[in-house]
Specification:
Elements: H1 3-29, H2 31-65, E1 73-77, H3 88-92, H4 99-111, E2 116-125, E3 127-129, E4 132-133, E5 138-143, H5 147-151, E6 155-158, H6 163-167, E7 172-175, H7 177-183, E8 193-196, E9 199-207, E10 212-213, E11 216-217, E12 221-225, H8 226-233, E13 241-245, H9 252-267, E14 278-281, H10 282-325, H11 327-335, H12 340-376, H13 385-411, H14 415-420
Parallel strand pairs: 5-12, 7-9
Antiparallel strand pairs: 1-13, 1-14, 2-5, 2-13, 3-4, 3-8, 6-9, 7-12, 8-9, 10-11
């Protein structure tokens, strides 16, 4: 490389550095105006990055939390697990699932060697033992011997509920780890008697710790025979639930078809009658959440698009004002040798700088808020690389697109006319 070429390259490097320095100085000289413009961009970016980060955290929580159904398990209920507005009338008119229908269904599935757990819930209960009692947050569950299998619980000590416990409606109970720690901190609970809702139950077993799902403890439960639950607590407002375990993932659909047919018989439905119950599995719950996430994500994108367009208009406005205010400066620069391209790049760089600064601020805010949601969902911290890249790209396009006209206008000023401007 010749000496002349080296000097020319050095002048280009210095000129580029001067352009960046001038752009930074111009943005910093109008702090309030620049800050408000940056804030507009940041709000638009935050609305999409924050929403998408939160949705990713919720999806991870749901994907891990849905395992509470157990492997190859589906539920049969009167109402859908996730209810969308507008469809309430279709299931509110359904008759409730009675214990007799649930018993008949279980007997038919037993003939097919398919395990079924019957489920009835009574929440907000308090358990007592001696002079100790729990907070009124215990869920009393009427069930049978298959509950542990279909709900992924393990037995810690003692025994599980048995078929004979259900047959004879015995006053026995299996308690969760949280109940055990509150009532029996220093003794073996098996064989002791607890009081719940005015009834005494003998503890025959304890469950291993399960932890939380969706922020709710899975260890504050007490299992009793479903027949005893029906005798003590049943009312016309209650509806039974059933959890059915297919032999394998491959046989899930055939088992669901079998269960639908058997439960239609138990409900007394005619061939032309539609199903008046719901089948819920992990896949169906994930599909329902996917619909919700799509709606929320679309709303976030729409809000973000509106905010970013408005902020782009703000960038154009501030740059046009800046061109007007700095007309004499542009004239001076051009009179001492600044080229049209140099002025164009300087003002375009200022617009992009405002836009990208807002993008960085919005991304930081979105990631922080999204990970606050992740913390409460008890999932690892997330960083939305895809949406971050999209945000940076979109803000670059906004900076260039909305800053191009003011930059062209500044570059097109005639030096003599610019110097005469007052």
């Amino acid at each position: 490389m010749s000496r002349e070429d080296s000097q020319r390259k050095g002048r280009r490097t210095i000129r580029a550095a001067d352009i960046v320095r001038l752009s930074l100085g111009a943005v910093g000289s109008n702090k309030l105006r620049s800050s408000l413009t940056i804030l507009g961009v940041a709000i638009g970016v935050f609305s999409v990055v924050g929403v998408m980060t939160a949705l990713s955290a919720m999806r991870q929580s749901i994907d891990s939390g849905l395992s509470f159904l157990g492997a190859n398990v589906f539920n049969i209920t009167r109402e859908p697990a996730i209810q969308f507005s507008g469809g309430e009338d279709s299931w509110r008119r359904r008759p409730r699932i009675t214990p007799q229908q649930a018993y008949a269904f279980k007997d038919m599935m037993d003939e097919e060697a398919v395990p079924v757990s019957l489920l009835a819930y009574h929440g907000g209960q308090r358990a007592r033992y001696s002079d100790r009692q729990t907070q009124p947050r215990i869920t009393l569950v009427g069930t049978n011997e298959h509950f542990l299998m279909t709900n992924k619980y393990d037995l810690d000590a003692g025994r599980n509920l048995t078929d004979s416990d259900v047959e004879f409606a015995r006053y026995v109970a299996v308690i969760g780890k949280e109940v055990q720690s509150e009532l029996f901190p220093n003794q073996d609970p098996v064989g002791q008697t607890i009081l719940m809702s005015g009834h005494r139950y003998t503890v025959v077993g304890t469950l291993a710790e399960r932890g939380e799902i969706f922020g709710q403890s899975m260890d504050n439960i007490v299992l009793v025979p479903v027949s005893r639950f029906v005798a003590n607590y049943w009312g016309g407002w209650r509806s039974m639930q059933m959890a059915v375990q297919a032999p394998s993932a491959v046989s899930m659909m055939p088992t669901q078809d079998l269960a639908i047919g058997r439960f239609r018989l138990a409900r007394g439905l005619e061939p032309e009658d539609p199903n008046d119950f719901e089948i819920t599995s992990n896949d169906s719950l994930q599909e329902a959440f996917g619909k919700i996430a799509a709606i929320v994500g679309t709303g976030g994108l729409l809000i973000s698009a509106i905010a970013l367009v408005c902020s782009g208009i703000g960038i154009m406005n501030i740059m046009l004002v800046s061109v007007t205010e700095r007309t004499r400066e542009i004239g001076v620069r051009k009179s001492i040798g600044a080229r049209r391209r140099d002025v164009l790049i300087q003002f375009l760089l200022e617009a992009v700088l405002l836009s990208e600064t807002g993008a960085v601020l919005g991304i930081a805010m979105g990631v922080i808020v999204g990970n606050v949601v992740a913390h409460f969902m008890k999932v690892p911290m997330l960083f939305p690389w895809l949406w971050t890249g999209i945000a940076v790209l979109v803000c670059s396009v906004i900076g260039v697109g909305f800053g191009l006209y003011p930059a062209w206008r500044a570059a097109s000023l005639h030096p003599v006319e610019a110097l005469r401007y007052e």
